[in-house]
Amino acid sequence: MKNAYIEIDKERCKACGLCISACPQGIIRFSSEFNSKGYHPAEPNDPEAKCTGCGFCYMMCPDVCITVYRAVKV
Amino acid sequence: MDYKVAYKMPRSLSGKQFTYCPGCHHGIVHRLIAETIDELDLREKTIIVAPVGCSVFAYEFFDIDGTVAPHGRAPAVATGMKRARPDLTIFTYQGDGDLAAIGTAEMIHAANRGELITTIFINNAIYGMTGGQMAPTTLLGMKTTTSPYGRKAEKEGYPVHVCEIIKELQGVAFLARTKVTTPRDVMTTKKYIKKAFQAQLKGLGYSLVEVLSTCPTNWGLSPEKAIKWLEENMTKEFPLGVYVDKVGDAK
Questions:
Q1: What is the pLDDT of residue B248?
Q2: Domain encompassing residue A43
Q3: Entry's PANTHER family (chain A) (predicted)?
Q4: Which DSSP symbol is given to B16?
């Protein structure tokens, strides 16, 4: 079960890589696909559900591409 | 399991894609200002005065009213707006070529009069939009298109330290220098921007937040290396910290 996850708006992303270096869990990578601007956008790669929802990627993203979701504890 | 949004684009941003280069810190500062406007519930009552420079279209990216001032004249335009409509929150968003070169007189006198406006000052030590010419804030020895052998003090003078110049003026209510290179710095910067807006809302005087920023394109570095260069060189020349704080901490 995931505690948190992120969504990245691939069309807004300009592949600066600041989210990748900011992520303490190392779960963001460059996509092998292109977006319509011609960049390889960042994409979440979290098969082991390591995302904690800290929001560091969101804070460092200069193009406000990232939305962070956290699980609601019941 | 249910999920709820922890972080998402603030409402005060229009959602239009930024026109800045990859890795440019303008976008981070835009987002922090928008979050502050959301948190203080000022979206319908705020006007941005955009500068001349890369951020000349800043009013397009915010979901608030705005205008553009001639080069360097944003504090003068904002003064008129604030005096005509004291009920509104007015802030200017300026770069170092705009504020520290052609607009020095406007900024210093607006600060000295204690105008109730807020200035967000982006210092990237270079003229970004026009192609990387030397700015007043360019570091000694730094190579730009108009100082190809590095800036020399005997020819081009020394870097201008805006915060140190205006900290003695009595009209200044909040003055701080910060950077946005790590998540921790981003949070500190947001705190400062919020305080700068509160200085205006409480009627204390002029407020300015200087944000050290990268310009990966004109520095000729990747976004990652530009951040490293900023940390190693710019923070030595421009010490970070709060210079004036008449707002005080919230209880």
A1: 82
A2: 4-70
A3: FERREDOXIN SUBUNIT OF PYRUVATE:FLAVODOXIN OXIDOREDUCTASE, FERREDOXIN SUBUNIT OF PYRUVATE:FLAVODOXIN OXIDOREDUCTASE-RELATED
A4: P
Helix axes of B74-84 and B104-113: crossing angle, nearest 10 degrees? 30
CATH number of B26-245, picked from 3.40.50.970, 3.40.630.30, 3.40.718.10, 3.30.2350.10? 3.40.50.970
CATH number at residue A45: 3.30.70.20
Q: Is A15 on the interface with B (CB under 8 A)?
A: yes
Q: CA torsion, points B59, A11, B215, B89, in degrees to nearest 10?
A: 20
* Residues on chain A touching B25 (C-beta within 8 angstroms): 62
Tally A–B CB contacts below 8 A: 89
In DSSP terms, which residues pair with B127 in a beta bridge?
A: B133
**Could you tell me if B91 lies within 8 Å of chain A, comparing CB atoms?**
no
Amino acid at A9: D
Using a CB-CB cut-off of 8 Å, the residues of chain A touching B224 are: 17-18, 21
Amino acid at B83: R
Cα diameter, chain A: 43
β-bridge pairing B206-212 and A4-8: unpaired
Cα–Cα nearest to B211, from B228, B244, B188:
B188
pLDDT digit string (tens) for B50-103? 999 999 999 999 999 999 999 999 999 999 999 999 999 999 999 999 999 999
Q: Say how many C-beta atoms besides its own lie within 10 A of residue B234's C-beta.
A: 22
ipTM: 0.94
Single-letter code of the amino acid located at B24: C
Q: Do A63 and B17 touch (CB under 8 A)?
A: yes
Residue B18: its chain A contacts at CB < 8 A?
A: 62-64
Please enumerate in sequence order all residues whose Cβ is within 8 A of that of B22, keeping only pairs 6 or more positions apart, or say none. Answer: A14, A15, A16, A39, A62, B216, B223
The DSSP output letter for B147 is B
pTM for the full predicted model: 0.95
Domains: count for chain A: 1
